[in-house]
Amino acid sequence: MFISKEGLRVLAVAGACLAAAGSALAQDFYAGRNIEMVVGYPPGGSNDLYARLVAQFIGDHIPGRPRLVVQNMPGGGSLLAANHIYNVAPKDGTVLAAVSQGIPLQARLGHPQARFDPAKFNWIGRTAASSNVTMVWQTSSARTFADALKQEITLGATGAGSTVALYPSVMNEILKTKFKLILGYKGSPEAMLAMSRGEVEGHSTTWEAVKAVNPDWVKDGKVRVLVQHGLYRHADLPDVPTSVELAKDPADRAVMEVIMSAAEVGKAYFTSPAVPPERVTILRRAFDAMVKDPAFIAATRKLGGDVAPMRGEEVQAMIGDLDKLSPELIARVKAVYNEQ
Asked: Domain with 240 in it: what CATH number?
């Protein structure tokens, strides 16, 4: 069928008008609505506090200025929340979520309770990477990482699937440390309280959690950080080794790099799959504006946190890269996970 130049021009104008109309409808969608922020952690911990900051500020940058309502949904090291967003939550862009940074990898490894594909979530953005640390209270006889190779050190932990339990367990498996996990604490604040009371010697959690919940511990030297978990040393901890660099065997280091790369996912936020693309774009651009908002930056730094953002498109690509890992490496990482 032949279409004249004039016909093509009319079609182009019509297409532009339809796109503009669709964009206008998307802009109007959030007016008068609520957005639920699902947090896969108990109230009061650092991840909850940071998610509440996002809930406080992002609505100001979404057309229509919707109200953000926080809903805590702890359980299974955030798996409960992730499953809910994927399988139950509305697919219309009215839900955001914050879960454990290790959730995407756990799903890629085929965790039996992970009923979702992390690459199908619509990732909205990341406020910052998240370094984890394993620390002990000042009364512990352990002073450096080398002591963890020689003596048993008790650590308070939450569920077996959480990073606070996973990272010490992986070190036991690969680096041959002697950490003993005492499971069952409801969250890092409770486990840190147990550490300060002498119920356990230490705890493994995010560095931001330590600074946000108990900033005086760092200032007064009440805790000693034995090792940090991530691909890079945190600027606050230049003299503390990472668990990755402590793995001397190349094959072991490759496994550690995959597991500890969760730190790069960090404090990332997403919405459910199958959300209309124009609404995903609105949420992503609102997130981008929020992380540049001086008020948001000041509030984050007041908690002792960093703002080192990553756009939603970049987070989406990073999560997708998990599917590119070789089957051999995935099998080895999975074997280490299954030992935990």
From this structure: 3.40.190.10
